[in-house]
Amino acid sequence: MSPRILGAVAARVLVQIRRDHRTLAMLLVLPCALITLLWWMFEDTPVFDAVGPALLAMFPFIVMFLVTSVTTLRERSGGTLERLLAMPMGKLDFLLGYGVAFGVVAAAQSVLAVGISVGLLGLDVEGPVWLLTVVAVVDAVLGTALGLFVSAFAQTEFQAVQFMPLIVIPQILLCGLFIPRDQLPDLLGAISDLLPLSYAVDAMQTLTTTSETGEVWGDLAVVAAFAAGALALGAATLRRRTP
Fold first, then answer.
1. Where is this protein found (predicted)?
2. Closest CA to 238 of 155, 145, 148, 152
3. What's the pTM value of the predicted model, to 2 decimals?
């Protein structure tokens, strides 16, 4: 792995994102708009404070997963990936470059989403807001890593989107948004313990209910480990081109 090549890949991706106004709007504006919509729906009720932490973990994760998987597949199907890998660049340089670039976008996305939720929409937070933002960033990076991973198994952009019911929706259903995880049936609770989004939601909910941050760091480490594992698997399975 070369830091110079990794940086060049990241800079190239950031330039592409900056020029693609629709993708940039989806990455930065859409999560904020969706959170604001839900706040508006449940104004003057305790519902937003109850589901807001889970949404701050969920929306960046979903958006980054979709955009990253489709963008990476487009690079391969268009032949760009094959040309890049013909240069003195490894697969890990490519994936980490993408991870760094989308990580920068994820940081901006999370700062905006947390700032709007806490500063403008009045989401109650007991823990430090900066740590809430860190959890949101790491969760968005997890979505990026999983998007990079699943793009290796799709042949079209439509197929990349089809991975969402397999990878994303089960995590949404079992993360504690609809029912507390300790109230799930035993088998579903065991499955929930294996899903990274569960730990991101747990960290968010802990920060909104208590100022104690010890458990948050443990949950954050689990999410980061899943993200690193997904990037490693992505590097091992990445193909130069779509058959």
1. Cell membrane
2. 152
3. 0.84
Would you give the distance in Å from CA 10 to the centre of its chain?
17
Name the one residue in this structure whose structure tokens are 């990476």.
Answer: 72
- Pick 226 or 88 by higher pLDDT: 226
List the structure tokens of 216. 């948050």
Q: Which two tokens stand for residue 193?
A: 């313990």
Q: How far apart are CA 149 and CA 234, in angstroms?
A: 4
Between CA 155 and CA 205 the distance in angstroms is 38
- Retrieve residue 146's tokens: 């999983």
Q: How confident is the model at residue 94 (pLDDT cuts 50, 70, 90)?
A: confident
Q: Which two tokens stand for residue 98?
A: 């993408």
pLDDT digits (tens, 9 = 90+) for 118-150: 888 888 888 888 888 888 888 888 888 888 888
Q: What angle do CA 26, 27, 30 make, to 5 degrees?
A: 50
How many of the other CB atoms lie within 10 Å of CB of 122? 13
Give CA–CA dist 194/153, Å, rounded: 22
